[in-house]
Amino acid sequence: MSDHLYDANKVSFEEAPFQAYFERLLFEFGDKYGIWVRNEDCSRFISVGVVNQISQIAVTIYLKCSGVAISDPLSVEVIEQIRNHFASDVKEDLRINYPPILV
Question: Which of 18, 48, 53, 89, CA to CA, is 20 to 30 A from 38?
Fold first, then answer.
């Protein structure tokens, strides 16, 4: 498993198909939160985390699970769910699209 802070110039071959999602999250949340990319189990799982650098609370969005890309992983509802989670008083991390709905 590898985690790294998103850098548009350092995207791996396995992560490249998801770069537009990383960029969208950077646009939506990058001014206040860190955007982290996770590649695990030989690229069978790829996710992106939006992390509050102060509280260390994270929202992890799975983009690929068990080798299958998730359809529309950053829908409008998912973006709102991320915003609502950080605006709430919840002190736990949140996982989205896991287990995946493979439509």
Answer: 89
